[in-house]
Amino acid sequence: MANMDTGYRRGFLRRMMAAVGAGAAAPAIVQGQPQTPRGGRRIAPLPSYARLQNYKSLKQSSFDRTGGNRDAWPIAEGETKEIFSADGPGVITHIWFTIAGGRNHLKDLILRAYWDGNAKPSVETPIGDFFGLNLNHYQIYESAYLACSPGRSLNCYFVMPYKKGARLTVTNEGTDRVGAFYSNIDYQEMPALPDDTVYFHAQYRQQAPCLAHNGGDRRNPDGRLNYVYCETKGRGHLMGVTLGILLNQDGWGGEGDDMIFVDDETRPAIIGTGSEDYFLGSWNFGGRDGAIPFAHRFYGAPVIVNPERVGGRYCCYRWHGDNPVTFTRYLKHTMEHGHDNDRADNFYSVGYWYQSEPYTDFPALPPLAERLPRVHIPAAAETR
Question: What would the mean pLDDT of 31-49 be, rounded to a whole number?
Answer without folding.
Answer: 67
